[in-house]
Amino acid sequence: MKKTALAVGASLLLATTAWAMKPNNEPIQPIEPAVITDPQKVELGKMLFFEPRLSKSGFISCNSCHNLSTGGSDNLPTSIGHNWQEGPINAPTVLNSSMNLAQFWDGRAADLKEQAAGPIANPIEMAFSHTLAVEVLQSIPQYRELFKAVYGTDEITIDHVTDAIAAFEETLVTPNSRFDQWLRGDENALTKTELEGYQLFKSIGCVACHYGPAVGGASFQKMGLVEPYQTTNPSQGVAGLTGKDADRFLFKVPTLRNVELTYPYFHDGAYWRLEDAVDVMARLQLGRKLSDEEIGKIVAFLKTLTGEQPQITLPILPPSTNDTPRPQPFG
Amino acid sequence: MKKTALAVGASLLLATTAWAMKPNNEPIQPIEPAVITDPQKVELGKMLFFEPRLSKSGFISCNSCHNLSTGGSDNLPTSIGHNWQEGPINAPTVLNSSMNLAQFWDGRAADLKEQAAGPIANPIEMAFSHTLAVEVLQSIPQYRELFKAVYGTDEITIDHVTDAIAAFEETLVTPNSRFDQWLRGDENALTKTELEGYQLFKSIGCVACHYGPAVGGASFQKMGLVEPYQTTNPSQGVAGLTGKDADRFLFKVPTLRNVELTYPYFHDGAYWRLEDAVDVMARLQLGRKLSDEEIGKIVAFLKTLTGEQPQITLPILPPSTNDTPRPQPFG
Prior knowledge:
By secondary structure, chain A is mainly alpha-helical. Chain A has helices at 2-15, 39-49, 62-65, 112-121, 130-138, 141-151, 158-169, 178-183, 192-203, 239-242, 274-286, 292-303; strands spanning 220-222, 250-252.
């Protein structure tokens, strides 16, 4: 809790100043390709990311809601969990999520490792327990070998599981978008309209929150600064953790990388059209009513933020054994 | 219906004679690697196989129940469908399914193309409609281009959709298992126990039904020939189609390729241990009570049928547009 509150405070300070200090004078920096230092751990993490046996039903994996075929998201307003339960909030993309200052919309997990532990044990998501998840993996000799090779011990722990998943997720970056090509000096990478959209994005103040390599993810901000955000979604943001009125509707600013792929938008997933999302943001956060032409330009710019999607070879998962606890899809 | 009934009749005749006629005198033949003649169609089919927008919820794809990470199956007794509805029967593996004489346990689809149309529109599976599925694809320019390139027309049809899915599924073969290496002459590919298991498998009569490259899939047979099969599953097999008492519990013989990966077993998914499945089959189909040692040998042989799993690069799916009908996960 303390860490989160500090992070929030620091990030608010940072938000208005950080981008102005970057050497290339642009508030957005290119995404660097992933540097893989421990390929065995990343491969193990990939298996676990696609592992439905980390759920009670044996049906839901990390990839179910953070689908790497669809921008690392499920493209649903809120997610489908165990027994078709409806999740409380829009599933954020896993792509470039290692760049976030904290994880979850309210930042309640300090990092990807801490985040990964959440859904496994959440009764409305994967509905399993850490103990059972580990028991499943421990019952499968191939997993025992892989964990041993990476962590040097015969005993698998949830700490290893989430560490490996996080190591895989850290590789899920999307470099070389057209915008990044432009940032790196290719003047022909953007059209005139897209460039005008970027200029507008800067001049009207979007960059106050959407800056850095992830074009967001670096601060918490109040949703509905100038005008309140109307929603039926009960999420209170950081206030849900701190209980403080001042933190109501304070959410981590989402990345705009690959935003074309990660509809529907906002923590409640209420807006499907990127045009509408831009319109709402300009009005509620900046007190500005944009023309359709201005919105079109900004949307054109935003679509240049779609980067190279991670090329994933589907992992082949080792079979359960006679000792593996069985899934309980309908139990 | 007529075609199915004929296929059933013909296959029953075939079952006892076909394998004896094979040139190498073995009732099982090696699996040949897939020959891809139309890579564009296969790639499109792969996208559709992983496409959750072919379901009402936007959450379920072919790969949800025929998971290529887990032997082309979901490793559940019966599958989870829209709104977490429980399917009526065990999802057969998609691996090597092109070798089946017909599709579904009761053979009600003549081929993979016909099969692929079923789950999309089945209200307890993907719960969509063919019209809506096509409407979704048609609204996405990248799909329009891909279908145009493959089928030469601007108008996507469900026929194209299922044709492309089937073309992809035809590539999902698992060649080069240790057993196939042995069949091709590598005498060291099998251990003594595995080879003894194979000899038993032949001598006690398993090969009467489990023959050919798929080690099954080539005939319909009555489940519970010698002794009735006890199950709470209401499926009637081919009788569900023909209404004939004689067709009660007549099911397509499942492939034993990759059987180590495709638990739980039988049309009701009631048996998780391969040992138990072998025991039940020997008693009910062959009137033979095997010793634990015999079962162990046959299981050792069966595990040599695990072949090279298809290496799948996860497709990147094109985003929906403002015109794309929206998923209705909870509607």
